[in-house]
């Protein structure tokens, strides 16, 4: 929805005036499913930029740190550049990428494969550009693994009659083995929300860009692949193949097993949430993923 710039919060307008004078209009570009973050596309003459208000001081720091990482790892056509940031407002001002968000774009199968290969290439470069690992990072990752194992155990109790024997065995494996399996896997710097809603496709230049860095931080490399593994690859093995062609390497045996268990936890969560809320999209996504994961694991 296009708005007059005067409709923006007053303190944000005052801050923007110091960095981008002459803003004429603003378009609300917030993601509907993430109401805690606010994003606007701003027009100032022929210049288009984005301004975002992060939901917390932590996400603001994560995102501003990640812009430094992005500038080193990716080109200006592949990632926005940070123009200004204000911790008090939790606001960031960034350049705009040319193109459209991939999610729900009507792509041909050929272009879709190209996009997923480029996505794999981008993610590999993001992962390979090292960042110093904070002392508390491993502790945070292991706490997350413990929480996900506990969630799998709870899903197992709630979903028991909805699962096949092979699916129950796989969810049980998550609850039993996930923390132990992931304890010594190396940490990399993640994008943190790596999915087509954060990919920007420029059809004219055939380039793919990456946006939205507020979940960036250190964790296991495969954690950037969980959404694709649970929501896309169960029914599109061709896109998995394209992605790993771009990523440039297959996963190690232990990484493959970790991704299997993390994706199983996500799929069980999808199914449990879908059944609880009568959401057929989540039900189908969870069932498709669990069925495929159990089939390929046996």
Short overview:
This protein is of the alpha+beta class and 298 residues long.
Keywords:
11 strands; 9 helices
How far apart are the first and last residues' alpha carbons, in Å?
Answer: 49 Å
Arithmetic mean of pLDDT: 93
The helix-strand sequence is EHEEEHEEEHHHEEEEHHHH
Secondary-structure class: alpha+beta
Query: How much helix, percentage-wise, in residues?
Result: 40-55%
Number of β-strand runs: 11
Which runs of at least 5 residues are low in confidence (pLDDT < 50)? none
List the helices and strands and how they pair.
Layout: E1 2-4, H1 10-19, E2 25-28, E3 38-44, E4 47-53, H2 57-73, E5 82-86, E6 91-95, E7 100-101, H3 109-128, H4 137-159, H5 165-182, E8 187-190, E9 199-202, E10 207-210, E11 217-220, H6 226-231, H7 237-247, H8 253-277, H9 280-297
Antiparallel strand pairs: 1-2, 2-3, 3-4, 4-6, 5-6, 7-9, 8-11, 9-10
Describe this structure in words.
With 298 residues, this protein is α+β, with helices and mostly antiparallel strands. Helices cover 50% and strands 16% of the residues. The chain has 9 helices and 11 strands. It has helices at residues 10-19, 57-73, 109-128, 137-159, 165-182, 226-231, 237-247, 253-277, 280-297; strands spanning 2-4, 25-28, 38-44, 47-53, 82-86, 91-95, 100-101, 187-190, 199-202, 207-210, 217-220. The strands form 3 sheets. It has a 6-stranded antiparallel β-sheet, sandwiched between helices. A 3-stranded antiparallel β-sheet has the order 7-9-10, covered by helices on one side. A hairpin with a 4-residue loop joins strand 9 and strand 10. Helix 3 runs parallel beside helix 7, helix 4 (137-159) crosses helix 8 (253-277) and helix 5 (165-182) crosses helix 8 (253-277). The longest helix is centred in the last third of the chain and has 25 residues, at 253-277. It is globular and about 65 Å long. It starts with a strand and ends with a helix.
């Amino acid at each position: 929805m296009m708005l007059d710039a005067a409709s923006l919060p007053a303190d944000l307008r005052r801050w923007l005036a110091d960095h981008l004078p002459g803003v004429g209009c603003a378009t609300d570009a917030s993601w509907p499913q993430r109401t805690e973050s606010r994003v606007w596309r701003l027009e100032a003459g022929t210049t288009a930029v984005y301004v975002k208000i992060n939901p917390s001081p932590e996400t603001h720091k994560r995102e501003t740190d990640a812009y430094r990482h992005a500038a080193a790892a990716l080109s200006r056509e592949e990632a926005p550049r940070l123009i200004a940031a204000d911790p008090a407002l939790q606001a960031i001002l960034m350049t705009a990428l040319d193109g459209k968000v991939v999610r729900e774009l009507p792509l041909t199968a050929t272009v879709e494969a190209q996009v997923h290969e480029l996505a794999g290439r981008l993610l590999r470069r993001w992962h390979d550009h090292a960042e110093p690992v904070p002392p508390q990072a491993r502790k945070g990752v292991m706490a997350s693994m413990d929480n996900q194992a506990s969630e799998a155990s709870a899903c197992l109790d709630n979903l028991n009659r909805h699962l096949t024997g092979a699916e129950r065995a796989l969810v049980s494996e998550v609850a039993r083995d996930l923390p132990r399996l992931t304890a010594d896997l190396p940490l990399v710097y993640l994008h943190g929300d790596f999915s087509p809603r954060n990919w920007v496709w420029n059809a004219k230049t055939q380039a793919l860009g990456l946006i939205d860095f507020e979940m960036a931080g250190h964790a296991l490399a495969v954690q950037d692949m969980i959404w694709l593994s649970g929501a896309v690859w169960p029914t599109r093995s061709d896109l998995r193949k394209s992605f790993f062609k771009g990523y440039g390497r297959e996963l190690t045996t232990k990484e493959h097993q970790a991704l299997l268990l993390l994706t199983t936890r996500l799929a069980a969560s999808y199914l449990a949430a879908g059944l609880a809320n009568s959401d057929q999209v989540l039900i189908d996504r969870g069932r498709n993923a669990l069925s495929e994961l159990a089939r390929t694991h046996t």
